[in-house]
Design brief:
By secondary structure, the chain is mostly helical. The chain is 18% helix and 5% strand. The strands form 3 sheets. A two-stranded antiparallel sheet has the order 1-2. A two-stranded antiparallel sheet has the order 3-4. The protein is globular, with a radius of gyration of 22 Å.
Length: 303
Amino acid sequence: MPLGLLVLVGVLAVNTAQFPPGRAINPHWLKDACDKCHVMKNGQAQPTIPLPESEQSCLSCHDSVHAKAEAHPVGRLLDPEQFRHPGWPLLEGRLACATCHDISLTRGHKNAQTAPSEFLRPAQAQGPDAFCASCHKPVDYSRINPHRMMTEGHVVPADCLLCHKQLADNQAMTRTGRPDLRTDVMMLCRSCHYYHVDWYEPGHMGAKVPAKMVAYMRAKEIVGPTTRPSRQMVAKLQATGTRPEFWPVGPENTLVCTTCHNPHQQGVFPPGSVLAVGAMKIENGRVVSSIETPGICLRCHNL
């Protein structure tokens, strides 16, 4: 399988506590914002940031909410058989933000518009795609789609391990609640899906689902897509704290990518399994999500 331009994601969790909701202030060209990333001592920024801490600083903004997410994922092992290593820094052998970006290149620039290509490191190769060719060998590489998990009817374990640390039981009929993902599910998805169209303001992702809606979601799973559950059923489910099984909500009843999207290819889990509901289909060589079908809003909204 060609490897090339990726699919994996940051191995560190995002910490947005130091930033208010909405867009973050760009600290890279503000002389008084050094403390956003650097340890300060006697009013001076310390010149060296250990790589794990610097990675956390980057991801605390670049999560596609506070600042734009990087199109190229991080967290992937640099396999010397697939890629060159130009000597740029790695985090435990994996790609990090600092692998490609040298923050010191922001020095002397007054604003982002005059910065050199978002302070990318100098290319180690020649040609029109010189920077990318510093690591990528020009040999039949393409972007991996992690939602393609099967070949000739069989699950490909290596594809599962792009997102999971360990293989799951693909005969499972119920959720264990322990997906063992490589990082937070939102950051994992956004490492590839960095543009997400959402017609709801301020956005579905991360929104808190009211308890009544959580109960309604489970009720809809029980009665089916064409039937409206009774108020009595919803009230009973809400009283018992029952949560949806097919469209799982995240911690503290927040919406996550996998609430609406089942990221697994159809056939990975057996028919009738909770994990098989809404699985991705392959149609004319294209991966299609079930969310593209009409009525998706009625899973949660009693319109």
